[in-house]
Amino acid sequence: MPFTEEEVNALNRQERAYPLAFFKAFAQDITVYEDDDIWVVDKPAGLLSVDGRTLKVSLLARLERVNPAVKLIHRLDMDTSGLLIFAKNAAAQSHISKQFIERLPQKSYQARVFGQWESIGATGKISVPVRYEPTTKPRHIVDHDWPKQALTLYEVLAHEMCNDQTVTRVLLKPVTGRSHQLRVHMVHAGHVMIGDPIYAEGAALMIAPRLNLHAQQLRLKHPTLGAWMDWESPCPF
């Protein structure tokens, strides 16, 4: 949910007051892998990837307090948790950014969606364009006339119960990287992600304390070694 101006100001003041030791401990807790070129971290849900227009509390800003040379490559939504890779120099940033442009990195997410969706083991794809809709900020929508395609591959992993409601655990692999793509594609499929503060309503929103979307796996080429590297983060829900 959006913060009030008073809440934003309080969070910003609190962030500025933290000592360097806080940011070092935070970075250590979320680090999955680090070397001279890259820094792979496990972003907690509820934290912006980069500073917003008013809220100056983000993953990038916190990492910069520990290493001012750290550089952004890609992002996760504030409500999403999981793997993010940062560069530690300009050459690594350029190399990995080009990989993302060429769609070389392989990303897998786990999500839980409301209701029972297909049979366990079912696979498929959702290929419909997604765009930002300014009249319902910050929502995005499916627009079949939009020229930029969005493609998600999926696999149904399990049917589960969550607070007496049936939910479906799915593996999602975005081929494209549109904003809110996975969330909107699940809405389009008729099964909104549970706990989603933007798209879910009623029971689908209330049965989970957070958006059930987690960036679980990441695979790409190391910018200097040239070898493919894989990282995985345990799903927290």
From TrEMBL:
One GO biological process term: tRNA processing
Superkingdom assignment: Bacteria
UniProt entry keywords in alphabetical sequence: Isomerase, rRNA processing, tRNA processing
Keyword Metal-binding among UniProt keywords: no
EC number: 5.4.99.28, 5.4.99.29
GO MF, any single term: 23S rRNA pseudouridine(746) synthase activity
InterPro entries: PsdUridine_synth_cat_dom_sf, PsdUridine_synth_RluA-like_CS, PsdUridine_synth_RsuA/RluA, RluA_PseudoU_synthase
Domain Pseudouridine synthase RsuA/RluA-like: 38-186
Annotated PROSITE patterns: PSI_RLU
First-level EC class: isomerase
Catalytic activity, reaction form: uridine(32) in tRNA = pseudouridine(32) in tRNA; uridine(746) in 23S rRNA = pseudouridine(746) in 23S rRNA
Protein task: Dual specificity enzyme that catalyzes the synthesis of pseudouridine from uracil-746 in 23S ribosomal RNA and from uracil-32 in the anticodon stem and loop of transfer RNAs.
Family recorded in the similarity comment: Belongs to the pseudouridine synthase RluA family.
Protein name: Dual-specificity RNA pseudouridine synthase RluA
Record lineage: Bacteria, Pseudomonadati, Pseudomonadota, Gammaproteobacteria, Moraxellales
